[in-house]
């Protein structure tokens, strides 16, 4: 029993650890939206934020995130979609108020899950839900935050499905931290891809999931409970204080002043209206961290050392915030700069008035002015390094780079042992027997010291080339092997007046044998040079023979093979040995032999001269025996003037020339020749062209075209049920006559069997065969394919919406297929008549007819757009809640919208009650100016009264936001 209790205790500890790891606090905020992609396809976007500073490190993003799908009307569970985790990112937490220095110990991770899912149209709609426990456990304004989960959901209503609606999207995520006691002024507005109206309000964040099931699969369905607010916080005062947190319902601007430090969760809802009807709500909740902020204060420092030696000065920015824009004026008439820590080069020494402005363009701009004294009291010398030859006396000179500002009073060179003279002065001499490294310590009249290192580098040059030796030499072209050492790799050779060269490894052609003095200069044209001279002796004591014999002979010929001594002026050949000996009739041992050509033979001649040097020459002899002949040509049921010839001569490695009865020639071994027409031709073949023993063969051939050759109609694509004409063509009709055509399958042939043309019924894809017989008894077969098609995909038409007011538009949709052509009628009230999705704007109920054709088939359909009775009320008549006169061509002018307005008047006032615009003309809108001056972004009030065509009247008042 004790053992059992022990095991149970350990299991409890393990489960507790695992569960606490799973539900560890981390949720900061999130939202869920959707995009309609068409064809019942929707992209779901789930954005989640987690705290990587205060949250539990074990609580990472879900992989995958489970999104439950419920029936939006009945609440019935339908299925779960698993959204895979993409890459996460750490947010760049830009300051919400750059006028304050905000603490940097805030870390937020974010990720957006995306998944494309199928949602068939239905009138009930869908409710998508994601739940996760738990929230950040340091939240101030809710009870037990570490045990409180979150629900992020979105409803896609039946109307939204029918119109392929996409939900609004908030433009940006609000700043995660704000300043205590500082007013919030943040644009939390959203945009709607479909152009629907949006109304904003604060809403309660949802609770969701539990510590026992922190990652439910599936998530629980609606309804959902709200978080439990901690007193005195609540929906109407989420941050506390006398200036409560709020949102403008029209513009989405957040306002309020947070009085206390802490972390606060808030909820925002964007309600989507179309034609005055609520069709969806996009909800987000997020955290504000209220922190103590330091106001912006401009300050900088310049720290020049007493021995400063540069006019380039670092200006170290020590302002309380470095995340704003700075402007620097250095007081020397140079252009201002905007860097954070600029390095500026002053024109000269002196005292300059330097001004730094911090927070340029902000309301909290701050300026600091300081006197900066720039001096050059330091020491700065340079000693250019030198290059020298071995043994040179070298002068090294120190230059005072600040001679206009101070004087060098002592020079100390080291090591002193390397100096020839000049110690204590600005100039010293050294002897360059090796590479020398020197250091100069210079002290000026201000007691400042500079240490400069320099050196003397030797340029080592040594000229040398190998001796030239000869053994049985047979050429006057002599190569030279350069072994010099030279930094510049520049050389000059003199070959005893017989030639010169600047190559590193030259080859010189001497005029004759004898003794020559060759000179090499290494480092030619450079600072350091070296010269080397060597005498060489060039003999021609080798053996060298050359063949003067023919390489081809006809079988049975008697001929002479011989060689010549190329160096007869310099030495004599002692004997000649020819191999093989058996074909030789006479001359063995001499420079010439006599033979009878019988078979291909390779002769070798070996010689030795009076100096004991040897040489060998190879003489290949090709013995030719030609018997030209080609195969007889028999043509039966021939269908081509292109005739192949087969060469059956004895030796196919030789050259050949064909003559095709004077109509053309060829040098191919076995050519294929195209004759100009039928007829009798004498074809000749000459073999062994270019040799001394060619041979000729002739043959008479009869070229005729008595074969059958037919082609059938090209493949056809027709509509099912059409009658198609198939035709067979005799391509050799000039040479023979077709006497019969047999078509199959016969069940689809309507007329024409036995002739070259048949009518067939196209009720399915079919292959037809035709066999033709000509008057020479030759047959040929051809095929024709008939491809049957229909209108596919099937044509469908819809009008969205199908009921509109006069002046509104309806989007017509027809099946969209690239190969279709469209023709809508009547087209006078359509945006286009030849596209699949024109926009209709009828003045009365109208039926539109569509004729669709592809390359082969046609289909018709129609759709009706109904005109609703006009009303003088919103949404038919309305004033937009915002506009942006920024010149981008979009929403630049505020207009009164309504297609049934007969007369109207509208006035617009600023926040002080001053009238800035008035009009009685619906076509005259406000461009955001007053008395020719652009007004700043703000909220303006308006009054509008109108009379409609049907006699009704409407009075509207409200706010308009001017955006920039």
UniProtKB/TrEMBL annotation:
Residues 296-358, 476-522, 641-685 form the PKD domain. Gene3D superfamilies: Immunoglobulins. The keyword Signal applies. Residues 1-24 form the signal peptide. PROSITE patterns: PKD (PS50093). Keywords: Signal. InterPro entries: Ig-like_fold, PKD/Chitinase_dom, PKD_6, PKD_dom, PKD_dom_sf, T9SS_type_B. Transmembrane segments: none annotated. It comes from the Bacteria. This is PKD domain-containing protein. It comes from Aureispira anguillae. The lineage of its organism: Bacteria, Pseudomonadati, Bacteroidota, Saprospiria, Saprospirales.
